[in-house]
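Predict structure. Input: RNA polymerase II transcriptional coactivator KIWI-like isoform X2, 106 residues.
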Amino acid sequence: MSNRENKKRRNEEAAAGDSDGAPPPKREAKRETGDATGDILVCELSKNRRVAVRRWQGMVVVDIREFYAKDGNQLPGRKGITLSIDQWKILHDHIEEINKAVTENA
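Output follows.
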C-alpha cells in the first residue's frame, strides 16, 4: 500500500471516529531529553550567558550558551556553541594568539 493510500485510509478512519463530536487529543511537542543536573557550571559570563562542561550523547562537551527565563526557570537558548573535547583543545592551544589579537584590537 502506498503512502498516499495509507494517508487516505487514516483520514477516512479519523472521519468515521469523529461522529461523537469530541475534538481529537492534542499532541505535545517533542522535548529534548537531557538532564541539566549533570552540568558543571564553570562560569557565568553575564546574566544570561554561561560556560558549562557537560555530558551530551555520551561525550564530554564544553557548552557556551545563552539562557532565557521561562516560568521562573533558566533554560538554554538556541544561541550558543558546543565544543567537543578535540575542538576545545584546539581553542585552548590558540588562546595566547587570541589574547594577543584582542589586546591589539581593544
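The first helix runs from residue 3 to 17.
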